[in-house]
């Protein structure tokens, strides 16, 4: 990205469902882009979404939002891909993966044709599998293909820990790593409040929790079931995802060198390789600058390997 493009970044979104549109709205409020292009198969609905957003313009910084086609992705700095089928009742994760891989075989070549130099941010679930699919189909450098990963999961963990410990969530540092899904796991050994490791913080806290291990296990259980509980009540989750995507976008467009647990291609990360999985990564204008290898404990390493194995099984079964 040159300095001229940084003055007027262009963000494109493929997929105008609830997640895609929550992201556009959040992006608009954050004043990160001067130009936003949205592509969707349902052009009539997309036009309605853009018309609705137009009424917001007097309240925000100037931004051009258009309902476009793939050719309009040209010169995008980042392309966010939310398109794909939703998991239906009774549909297995593998069936969903196969369906969305087939969709990606159609849309990724079109995106690459017009925006080959853009950073790709993959959101479609199962996100680790689809990030791998986007990487393989596009043939882009892995650093330029990012999955949204466990950024939102980690934010939920920080939220629930902050409520339990009665501290500002911004002073809680804790990661959910691995698959964005049922095999994800918390890294308790590295979790901190205000720079103090949890194992040291809990004894000095005035609110005695009793069985700390059981308390933390219950908190992680809430994190793991957070999305399921929201979906049970309203049918989908989108607000948190929209903000998580905006956070990742900010790291790219502003060249922030932010450390985020995005889904990244790993090779020999605790003997895990040839898979997309969430680990802490330094995110800048090039996409992923570097991966941080946390000092994990034995059980956490085992959890990482188990998570990677499950993702790779789905990747293989999806025909990639």
What do these coordinates show?
This protein has 320 residues and is α/β, with parallel strands linked by helices. It has 2 domains: 3-147, NAD(P)-binding Rossmann-like Domain (Rossmann fold); 151-317, L-2-Hydroxyisocaproate Dehydrogenase, Chain A, domain 2, CATH 3.90.110. Helix content is 45%, strand content 17%. The chain is built from 10 helices and 16 strands. It has helices spanning 3-7, 18-30, 43-54, 93-115, 127-138, 151-165, 198-204, 212-234, 239-253, 298-317, and strands at 10-14, 35-39, 64-67, 78-81, 119-122, 145-147, 172-173, 176-177, 185-186, 192-193, 196-197, 258-260, 263-266, 275-278, 281-284, 287-291. A 6-stranded parallel beta sheet has the order 3-2-1-4-5-6, sandwiched between helices. The protein has a 3-stranded antiparallel beta sheet with strand order 7-10-11. A 3-stranded antiparallel beta sheet has the order 12-15-16. α2 packs across α9 (239-253).
